[in-house]
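Inputs:
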Amino acid sequence: MTVLDNTKPIGISVNKFENFSEWYIQAILKSELVDYAPVKGFIVLRPYGYRIWGIISKTLDERLIQTGHENGFLPLLIPESILAREKKHFSGFTPEVYWVTEAGDERLSEKLAVRPTSEAIAYSTFSNWVRSYRDLPLKMNFWNSALRADIKGTKPLIRNSEFLWQEGHTVHTNEEEARNESQDILEIYREIIEQHLAIPCIGGYKSEKEKFVGANETLTLESIMSDGKALQMATSHNLGQNFSKSFNIKYLGKDDQEHFAWQTSWGLSWRLIGALIMVHGDDRGLIIPPRVAPIQIVIVPIFKDKDAPRIKKAACEIKTTLENTGFRVITDDRNEYTSGWKFNEWELKGVPLRINIGKREIESGSVELVRRDNMDKTHVSCDDLRSQVTELLERIQERLFDQAKALLNKNISSAANLDELKSIIDKKGGFVFCGWCQDQKCELRIKEACGADLRVIPFDNQDLLKYPNCVCCKKKAFRVAAFAQAY
Amino acid sequence: MTVLDNTKPIGISVNKFENFSEWYIQAILKSELVDYAPVKGFIVLRPYGYRIWGIISKTLDERLIQTGHENGFLPLLIPESILAREKKHFSGFTPEVYWVTEAGDERLSEKLAVRPTSEAIAYSTFSNWVRSYRDLPLKMNFWNSALRADIKGTKPLIRNSEFLWQEGHTVHTNEEEARNESQDILEIYREIIEQHLAIPCIGGYKSEKEKFVGANETLTLESIMSDGKALQMATSHNLGQNFSKSFNIKYLGKDDQEHFAWQTSWGLSWRLIGALIMVHGDDRGLIIPPRVAPIQIVIVPIFKDKDAPRIKKAACEIKTTLENTGFRVITDDRNEYTSGWKFNEWELKGVPLRINIGKREIESGSVELVRRDNMDKTHVSCDDLRSQVTELLERIQERLFDQAKALLNKNISSAANLDELKSIIDKKGGFVFCGWCQDQKCELRIKEACGADLRVIPFDNQDLLKYPNCVCCKKKAFRVAAFAQAY
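Outputs:
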């Protein structure tokens, strides 16, 4: 059998910070997370990528079930007349809609939209389910894929014409409960993103210009990628009564009167996989935070022919021990690859911890642990393995977060005037905190001047004293806003 | 607070055996499994239905992972040119395809099919992944929804224009391995359907006329519904090299030569939920087999005002005990409904076991257990509760299977000539076993004479001695075939 050489044929050929865009594409393709599909803007999610999405979605699903949400499934196709019922929503989405116009050989009498989002179809259904205050709150979630014809450039996982996501839709008897729901959901999203994906976020509101079409307010979590561009991680919308009035969702209250309901919608997509690659990866490939890693530990038995059986056996025992402790672990005992080739492959795939075990280790009753994040190596006695592995994985998780937190902090600046803002955006990127008069004209002028969007009006808006004037028009500032160029 | 009266407003108003079709629709709508969607032929899966699908799909997914399959996600939209690459497959599906022809305001240069099934898009992708025998077998599975414009009448869950399913697609180096895969999968499907859904199946082959378009052979599991009509439960296709040649899936063998690969595809859908309702339900509503029941046990505390606190507390303790044993259990302690109303609701929803606990039970340290399948009641000491519940649920599961088995047996007949066949189909329905010459003309004549399809050529074909002649043309029979009218 040919033993393949350790010549890094599988590695990434560019430097992350020199050519970030090409690095990202090589990282996700060579690690076999995704592949391009035959239709422009669409991708195939491969098993390794699917498993990351599976872990993220299972974690979120459990939190949603715990907090009283229920799953369902809504039709993919939405008649144009139903999509059109909420006017702003329709005009916002219609440029991106894929339209079904034929079934078999027949032309349809009404065009059907391929789900760009499910507010319209969900609420036309909810209006049949909601009768009395006893039916509320109605808190539903839907795992599906949504389609939006790309109007900007596409980037796999970050912006595609189709994406896997969940979309939550809730109905409440009063405004306060709906507002609390939209906030609670944002905090659940933050928990997943910060504690599991190890990416810190800035939480806050979208501006009128940037909010979801049809919402009263949109809450957002924004993060920074390694190239200094911002990425919207997840959003939660307080819809007020806009949709309940368009879709006639009314309930009979305790006062025996009919009232329009209050609603929210919110979503989180596979974009988060793209984000964690961008934030944590390095020139060797991915670095997946342990909590969302499909493989948390890879065991590589290192052997020459005559030692193979007992070394493989020892590797197998270690695997069983760690699996029984609850870790996701594999052994790579393929004969046709060198150890070096294997190291490269699992580093490329971002497995957080590797265990090397060879003749020397067996004789000393120890193994070698290699961290993926900083490549540190330690020898550990087999007796301490479980506790050492547990602790190391926790430390890796923490260090990735700390590193991402440092990246975010490094990418937060402030500006007092448009020239300063423009200069920071051009030279350094990242979020620039500024005072803002709340006039959309200033928001548009800033976009025109330096390509930066108003990403988020942070919840924590006490800094207003520091920014008394609008960065653009110099009039009194009413909000602190974070501007950035974004994906 | 108004206490609602026990007047069965929620019950089913028709008899299962007098008006099966109406009974089915009322059963699935009133139990809140599904709802109609605004587009004809489409449905909404409500939380209770989604949870059944969740349990079925989790059970199957674990078996598929155990047997070396991996999940992924394929694009929803398939260019016409790719769908057209396998000619038979294309001509078979094209009358049912929903076509996307526009994105936003723009007309597309090529029509895109909304996924009717993913052979074409999967195999155009696999052809990039498969290089050498080392890459094989490739065993993938996809959980998604497929769309087929209804060409026959629709029936919720049984035949819809969109359905949730899984579709498996595998690639092998040789014919035997592919054939084994298609057989192994059928046996996994049988295990799920017989052991979990408690519905016995007849396994066998489809005829040339009925097989999957593009396959060499289709393996099927067929069951009988309570009205004597057959239902195809799941199919597994041995694709031979038909698709690998159309999509150019070649591998470099150990012999250093290029070979076309061998393939299979297979699927199982939410139709199974419809089947279990049809087979097990009764005039009170659904009866869900314990293994797939979202709620296996409902505890109903029965109280007047002053006893409420301690009876509710006892119910809560029982719930904790049973949950810790691993059961899916809820307590219905709503004040605004009478006990009788609650009994009706949970019977309608088919919860397999109910626990009643009132003042009398608390005083005697016991509870009342009520089986949903035969409505038998027993009193059980709280000390024996866990073991009694475990045993009862197992017995219910077994009895539902035995009952369905009796239904199947009752619906198996045999016929020696066309008049006999026609008479049985007209009067009694069910499967009619006959000798068959293997000529498609006879299959078509039978369909014309009595509306029965050739559902399955059973694996167990040793009965051929009993059926020496074709039921239609009287020539020598080469196969035993089971004919039936079907959904």
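Remarks. The first helix of chain B runs from residue 20 to 30. The domain at 412-484 of chain B is CATH 3.30.110.30 (Translation Initiation Factor IF3).
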